[in-house]
Design a protein that fits this description.
This protein is of the alpha+beta class and 144 residues long. 36% of the residues lie in helices and 33% in strands. The longest helix has 52 residues. The model has no long low-confidence stretch (mean pLDDT 88).
Length: 144
């Protein structure tokens, strides 16, 4: 009876190929995870803006959403009484920053549901990938 096994060189080569494959797959996995985090933050910010829009209509008051890019926070407050935040959202530590707001650092919703100015909010992750949120003049919040 003749037995055959793999030589040490063959085993090392197979392990090397498996290692290279895992290295590429790991990089791809990290990239996909970072993209997913950014999409989640974008969706959560859109939900906070929609909640502020609904709050303005329900309370029949002007509601302002203020972005603090330096601290990675966002707060919802009465436009006429900014000292008392109604809601706060902290997206720090999620690998995403607010890169820019086309309409200034805040978005104001009127009791009619309209927004004071149309705004585009640009988000960026550490890989320089960008996402946008838009608030239309009629108060519609969308992720293009």
């Amino acid at each position: 009876m003749q037995e055959r096994g793999a030589s040490l060189v063959e085993v090392v080569m197979v392990l090397g190929l498996v290692g290279v494959t895992l290295a590429f797959a790991g990089e791809s996995f990290v990239s996909a995870a970072m993209r997913q985090h950014a999409k989640a933050v974008t969706t959560e910010l859109a939900a906070e803006l929609r909640a502020a829009h609904a709050l303005a209509i329900k309370r029949r008051e002007r509601i302002r959403v203020v972005f603090e890019p330096d601290t990675s926070k966002m707060r919802t407050e009465l436009a006429d009484a900014p000292q008392a935040p109604l809601r706060q959202y902290d997206y720090g530590g999620r690998g995403v920053i607010v890169e820019g707001l086309s309409g200034g650092s805040s978005v104001v919703f009127y009791p009619s549901g309209r927004a004071a100015t149309p705004t585009t909010i640009t988000l960026r992750n550490s890989r320089q990938e960008r996402w946008e949120l838009t608030v239309s003049i009629i108060g519609r919040v969308s992720i293009p």
